[in-house]
Amino acid sequence: MVFENRNLTLHGLVAVAAAILAVAVFSIALTIWALRQDAAADAARETGNIATVLAEQTARTAQSIDIVLADLDERIAALGVMTPDDLRNATGTKDFYNTLIDRLARLPQASAISVIDDRGILWSTTRRWPTPPLDLSDREYFSEQKRADTQRVFVSTPTQNRINGTWTMQFSRRINGPGAELLGVLFVGVDATYFNEIFGTIETLHNQKITLARRDGSIVAEYPSTEIVPGRKVPDGSPWYELVAKGGGNFHAEGTKGDDARLTAVRPIQAYPLVVSVGVTEDSAFANWRRRAVFLGAGTIVIVVCSIFLLRALARQLRKLMASEQSLADGKTRLAEKSTELERANLQIDAALNNITQGVCMFDEHARIVVVNQRYLDMYGLSRNVVKPGCTLRELIDHRKAVGLFKGDPEEYCREIIATIKAGKTADSLIETTDGRIAYIVQQPMAGGGWVVTHEDITERKRAEAQTAFMARHDALTGLANRLHLLEKIDEQFAWMRRTGEPFTVFTFDLDLFKAVNDSLGHPTGDALLSAVAERLRACTREQIATIARLGGDEFVLVQSSPNQQRESAIVLANRLLEAISTPYDINGHQIVIGTSIGIALAPNDGDTADELLKNADLALYRVKSEGRNGYRLFEPEMNDEAQSRHALQADLRAALARDDFEIHFQTIFDARTQLPTGAEALVRWRHPTRGMVPPGHFIQLAEEIGLIVPLGEWILRQACMAAVTWPADIKLAVNLSPAQFRNPNLVDMVAETLAATGLSPDRLELEITESVLLQKNANNLTVLYQLKSLGLSIVLDDFGTGYSSLSYLRMFPFDKIKIDRSFVSELSTRADCAAIVCAVVGLGHGLSIITTAEGVETEEQLRLLRAAGVDQVQGFLLSRPRLNVNLDFQHPVRNERAA
Ligand code: C2E
Ligand code: CA
Ligand code: CA
To answer: What percent of the chain stands above pLDDT 70?
Structure first.
């Protein structure tokens, strides 16, 4: 922008300069033109002056000749000449000749004086005596004077002397008689060169041309040309004639072929018919002017050229100047930008320095602080008054020591740092301040001998690392050790045991039916329960002797170091755990009662490695579970065999269904009062190729574990239904459903399809479920139960009384039948509480219109008591054992007998 303006002014300047130059050139041209005018005027004036002077001289010459002629005329008259003859007589004398000579002497310009008579014959001449009889009648002066009517002088054009050949011009005068008749002519011959001589005396101008001409234009004499050309005239049409008529003036004649352009002054001579004209060539007239003009012009050109060069140089210089000004301006802007940038950078550095999490301290080569940021001061709680630029390293460390944030010897520390920096090495160190913070310090040498120190407070990082390390080894939910940490701990225990001989114990346990809690109350509640359990575990164990771990889900492991009485203290702890865990929980408003099963392995007896110990404790745990949960077991070597055989059994089980190794036995159920069969319960049997008949108690759980229960259950229902359709129509079929079957979404469809396929009327089918189905208190299982019931079949609550809150389940679903668990029946006669429970259940069943069945009736006593209690139906070995072909029961004479 600025540059453009300057460019404009530059162009303006150049334009102005050019204009000035043009004006100068113009005025110089004007001057030259004016000078030319002046030169022309000068030439005119000069030629005019010369012409005037010459005209006067010529006039005087003519006058003097005229006077002599007039005098001679008077003398002739005085001689009494009246006729031409008189004249001839008077002038032909020697005397007259002498008179002529005398008069000639008075005319220096004249070469001769002569007289001719009226016929043109020469009568007397100063040239010679005696006078030769020359006829001059052909001469112009004679013919002119003969014609003339006055006695005016006539000047004739030069003629060549016939005697001596010289050119002479004649001033002639008529001699009149008394009647003015011509008597003769007097004439004075003037050498034609005479005027040239006169003219030659005035030679002021170069190339001047002086002409003496008659008024009729005939040229009489010319200077400087001496050659006389007879009959030559001023060219026709020349302004000369006009000027002569006007009485004189100047004219300009354009150059012709043989002649240059001229400026000519014309001066007619008063009283004589002569005209003097003085001409100069333009060349000479303007010679001076031209010289000046050339000088001026050349000077101007030189000036113009110089000026142009100067201007160009100036412009170039200006442009350069402007460019440099521009670049200077640019430079300034850049500089300004740079400086703002620098300022910004400084601010940024300041901001950076004061915002970075590291303490930064910069030292110069004399170990004095150059820069220190606030963070550094804050980190160590140092004073700005001490720690500031100029403070030495030693002063700084001393100050740190003084405020109690430096451990060690300041002198040694400083010496070490300076030595390291001098060696050009980067040093880093980890220091712990006296207030327990950890700082990571890096000393970085700089060019020039100084160095930068960064102090990073890594306490938090260390803490985070510790946290991460902790997280890596602990369960996030409960804060208990995880598997990794557990294995480390067990290894530590082994190491400890090897050093001290002190044994330790591993407990593995899980929460009975925890999955049901999770499913029914939701995971957050499940998680809260796990946390609560962890809390109780911590509370009931001493941290020093026990590591508690959660391996995932509800699987816990506890390691107890037991210096003595290992087995006993293990049992004590197991009982404490059982008690602690089974105490009811209040979680999110839910009352939860949960049991636990504990497996125990003793090191070193039960294992040399962590894996082995854990595996064996798990086996013991499995045993607890298979024995009905909520208890503990110490590992026994047989468990290993069991486990192995279980594994083998699982493998066999997979193949069994395909091999059709299962069969269904039925156990008849009787009316307690009439003892007539009312139905039969299907009980699956596995005819193992080598083990013989395997009871369901041994393989149902296995089938659940390996997911075989769904196809097996379907197969059982189908087989049972197929059998039942062959029975009498009043005999019902009871089929057991495993809780695992409820996880199969097609359960209801499967049942409906089976009924339809086998043609068994739904009202003849009873499905037996255990409380565990309802313990999974989720809406789905209840829905499934309602859907099953809506098919028209009956739902039976099996093993009633073995759970924790069996009575509450009765409110949950409208069961058709309750089966009082065998455990109550078997102790019916020995334990009063069992009888009471049976009575209560029977009463409840009657109140709710639910049929009650007692199972496991083995004695008549039991049967009697049950009947007395009002039980509706009975089932047991006393009445009928499970058997393949149950039809016999229905045709049994006893039935008919009893029925009767
Ligand atoms: P449960 O449903 O309570 O079946 C009754 C069990 O008691 C049967 O044992 C039966 O043989 C036995 N029992 C009957 N009367 C007496 C008696 O007077 N004294 C004694 N000591 N026992 C008697 P089993 O057949 O070994 O079945 C055991 C359990 O296996 C069943 O208990 C049931 O929970 C399950 N189970 C049997 N068959 C099936 C089946 O087809 N499906 C499913 N899901 N579970 C089955
Ligand atoms: Ca049953
Ligand atoms: Ca039962």
So the answer is: 95
684 lines ligand 1 (CB under 6 A): yes
For residue 420, pLDDT over 80 is answered with yes
Query: Which residue, 228, 223, 285, 222, is CA-closest to 253?
Result: 285
Q: For ligand 1, is residue 667 a contact (CB within 6 Å)? A: yes
Separation between Cα atoms, residue 123 and residue 93, nearest integer Å: 9
CA distance 364 to 453: 11
Which residues, 6 or more positions from 304, have their beta carbon under 8 angstroms from its beta carbon? 21, 24, 25
Residue 895: pLDDT band with limits 50, 70, 90: very low
Atom of ligand 1 nearest to the CA of 877: 18
For the stretch 361-378, pLDDT in tens is 888 888 899 888 888 888
Query: 637-659 vs 709-724: helix axis angle to the nearest 10?
Result: 50
Q: Is the CB of 736 under 6 A from ligand 1?
A: yes
Nearest ligand 1 atom, CA 882: 11
Topology given in CATH for the domain delimited by 473-635: Alpha-Beta Plaits (3.30.70)
Say if ligand 1 is within 6 A of residue 116 CB.
Answer: no
Question: What is the structure's pLDDT at 777?
Answer: 55
Say if ligand 1 is within 6 A of residue 697 CB. yes
Looking at the chain, the domain(s) classified CATH 3.20.20.450 span: 654-899
| Strand ranges of the sheet holding 596-603, from the earlier edge strand across to the other edge | 546-552, 555-561, 504-511, 596-603, 631-634
Q: What pLDDT band is residue 899 in, cutting at 50, 70 and 90?
A: very low
Structure tokens at 520: 């029914």
| Mean pLDDT in residue range 766-779 | 80
Average pLDDT across the chain, whole number: 85
Topology at the third CATH level for domain 79-192: Beta-Lactamase (3.30.450)
Atom in ligand 1 nearest the alpha carbon of residue 709:
44
What would be the CATH architecture of the domain defined by 654-899? Answer: Alpha-Beta Barrel (3.20)
Class for the domain spanning 358-467? alpha beta
- Across-strand partners of 172? 154, 187
For the segment 378-394, the average pLDDT, to the nearest whole number, is 84
- Distance from residue 197's CA to the centre of ligand 3 (Å): 185
pLDDT at residue 898, as a whole number: 47
Whether 700 is in the pocket of ligand 1, judged by its Cβ within 6 Å, is yes
- The residues of the chain that CATH labels 3.30.70.270 are 473-635
Range list for CATH 3.30.450.20 in the chain: 79-192, 358-467
How far is 614 from 607, CA to CA, in rounded Å?
8
Check whether 3 has a pLDDT greater than 60: no
CA 629 – ligand 3 centroid, Å: 17
